[in-house]
Description:
Layout: E1 2-11, H1 14-31, H2 35-54, E2 59-68, E3 71-80, H3 88-91, H4 105-111, E4 115-121, E5 125-133
Antiparallel strand pairs: 1-2, 2-3, 3-5, 4-5
Helix pairs in contact: 1-2, 2-4
Amino acid sequence: MRVVSAESMEIRISDDVVLVRQAVRKKSIALGLGLVDQTKVVTASSELARNTLDYGGGGKVLLELVENGTRSGLRVTFEDQGPGIPDVELALTDGYTTGNGMGLGLSGAKRLSHEFELWSKPGEGTRVSILRWK
Length: 134
């Protein structure tokens, strides 16, 4: 997979979640995604940005336009140095939450993406990468 362009942003305050959503929408439009695909990747990114802030204590996001052969896509990777997720499988279960939400953030982001990767280690942080192909 080849990275065509990349942009990194910090997630430190609530306003940054809005800026991430706007940046993801802008990149998805530039890629030529249709409205439904734009909405899916923006929604998933919004959930993950909020998780990065609320559960990870803040972090960063990397937005990449990528190519793989004839396919183009948008990969969005969130990373924090927070407490990590002790049980990733449980965290991906619909309805499971350690906060006040509905427990659909991670599992919902996974469903809204063509590709989803989650790495987390207690005490070291979490990295979640989603990819939406055109």
